[in-house]
Amino acid sequence: MAKIDLLSLTSEELIKFTQDLGQPKFRGQQIFQWIHKGVKSFEDMTNLSKDLRESLKEKAYITDIKIEEKFVSKIDGTTKYLFLLEDHNIIEGVVMKYKHGLTACISSQVGCSMGCSFCASTKGGLVRNLMAGEILDQIQTMQLDIGERISNIVLMGSGEPLHNFKEVISFLKIVNDEKGLNIGNRHITLSTCGLVPEIKKLADLQIPINLAISLHAPTDELRTNLMPIGNKYSIEELIDSCRYYLSKNNRRITFEYSLIKGVNDMESHAKQLSLLLKGLLCHVNLIPVNLVDEGNFEKSKNEAVKKFADILMKSGIEATVRREMGSDINAACGQLRNRHVDKA
């Protein structure tokens, strides 16, 4: 029988696991607290009996990812990590410093199958899903390395979170647990390229996290050219799923829009986007596109970005331009992993 990763279990699942070993409920609670303090060895769980520790060694393990490489921006202190998983796959994580605290951008998959043309994470396709414990351990590892508490999480690293629905939902429950890292749902943002059925499933769970939609175009024709997911779900279907999410959670949705020179950054696109989002409780995050080695896109000029934002705001759509973080260390998701894999 395969060993179970205890870091991937919710507190309820861990309590059941220990009860199945013939242990009382409080033992599961003790183990949960140990592993969420960052303890990786059962030997260090000093309030457990020797027999229980031996039994845990036989039947379970605790995910323990390692820092393969680390880069710190000299511009703004952004820290980029390449993490080595136990199967030798590589994922990325980023810690960004803001006035309100530290925000961690974490990965949910090794690679990605969504194929968005301007994203480095999709090169090479999807290798595998991450387990909940591997998603969580990115945060634990970064906190231990930096020596400060991470207060905000964005699931915007490598992978499509809703394509790994089960493990991501488990992660959300675990990271929110008051006996664990205790990071509030309102401090967590999940970004999706638009898996319509999964957005509705997430809405039904009524977990009050922040939802961000990677939109990047106001029409189906343009979006399909940039994002293959547009072939499966139309913008109308996507916006309908957003309305459903709002009906269940009433949490403002963020629409991410990467501005690409001469492709989707014209005044006509801004006006189309304004009409599309009219009446929605939403915010548009305008992102000057990151340069991808394999792509031929250029960033929009500053004047075009400002004009685009002005048109949205004059139409009653709140819009901001994302501040570029860690530009000197290739902090955009996928860039460093690709270079590392290419060298291997």
Automatic annotation (TrEMBL):
Radical SAM core domain location: 98-328
UniProt EC number: 2.1.1.192
Active site: 92 (proton acceptor), 333 (s-methylcysteine intermediate)
Molecular functions per Gene Ontology: 4 iron, 4 sulfur cluster binding; metal ion binding; rRNA (adenine(2503)-C2-)-methyltransferase activity; rRNA binding; tRNA (adenine(37)-C2)-methyltransferase activity; tRNA binding
Free-text comment on the cofactor: Binds 1 [4Fe-4S] cluster. The cluster is coordinated with 3 cysteines and an exchangeable S-adenosyl-L-methionine.
Subcellular location: Cytoplasm
Gene3D superfamilies: 1.10.150.530, Aldolase class I
Pfam families (UniProt xref): Radical_SAM (PF04055), RlmN_N (PF21016)
Catalytic activity: adenosine(37) in tRNA + 2 reduced [2Fe-2S]-[ferredoxin] + 2 S-adenosyl-L-methionine = 2-methyladenosine(37) in tRNA + 5'-deoxyadenosine + L-methionine + 2 oxidized [2Fe-2S]-[ferredoxin] + S-adenosyl-L-homocysteine; adenosine(2503) in 23S rRNA + 2 reduced [2Fe-2S]-[ferredoxin] + 2 S-adenosyl-L-methionine = 2-methyladenosine(2503) in 23S rRNA + 5'-deoxyadenosine + L-methionine + 2 oxidized [2Fe-2S]-[ferredoxin] + S-adenosyl-L-homocysteine
Family classification: Belongs to the radical SAM superfamily. RlmN family.
The protein, known as: Probable dual-specificity RNA methyltransferase RlmN
